[in-house]
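User: My instructor asked us to take a sequence, write out its structure as tokens, and then describe one feature of it. I'm not sure where to start. Here is the sequence I was given:
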Amino acid sequence: MNYRHGYHAGNFADVVKHIALIAILDYLKKKDTAFTVIDTHAGRGAYDLAGEHAGKTGEAGNGIARLHGLSGPAALSTYLDLASGERYPGSPLIAAQLLRPQDRLTAIEKHPEEFAILEETLAPFRNTTAVHTDGYARLLKLLPPPSRRGLTVIDPPFEATDEFATLARTVIAAVTKFATGVYLVWYPVKSSVDAFLGEVLAAGIAKTLTIDIGIAAPEGKLNRAGLLVINPPYGLAATMREIGGIISSPMQAEIRVAWIAGSE
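Assistant: Let's start with the prediction itself. The structure tokens for your sequence are:
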């Protein structure tokens, strides 16, 4: 599977991932103390939904395109505001736009062409750094952040056959180094996902939430994805359930929020 961001920008899974990202950032901003965001597979940061990649798949038509005019909790309203411009914002641009002066973003991208555009996208934001390297390896060198407060976004392309195994090892190693951090991990739902989730849970992580998003799609197309949230902020589950109830009908999606370790 190749989940290069540009082909799927603004689709059903992107919508839920980005709303969850905003909800987590809103929570972190409740305290004045600084925090750090690390995005391990940042992509180019912003996408033209009518451009070559997104236009080829048309997946945004079943995602963000169906949500204009909705209203709801703050995270949904903020998302719709940020997604209303000429370019659809990826995770690093969303974070960059919402950070305060004391907060920091490190956005990592391995693909040379994607990284060059990412640098341009983040250039206006002084408290951001774009890094051209392997996201898995660099993440472990950046933890724990100096602020001791932070969010790590892990959204791999799933090009490698052993991606789930690499992802599990990295998540466990990251939590070992920075146990109090929040982790937002995206994955396509396929046969190996249960083994991935089981391996993460076996590491003894106390609080873990999953958000599952499914749609009807032609055979061979992505029709189900998930988010693993480690150390979810208080109230995130309730917020995502409420927003899920608002956006699921327009997107013709099923959105399920469940604790797989711990509870509110």
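For the description part of your assignment, you could build on this observation: Residues 30 and 149 are 12 Å apart (CA to CA). Try explaining in your own words what that tells you about the chain.
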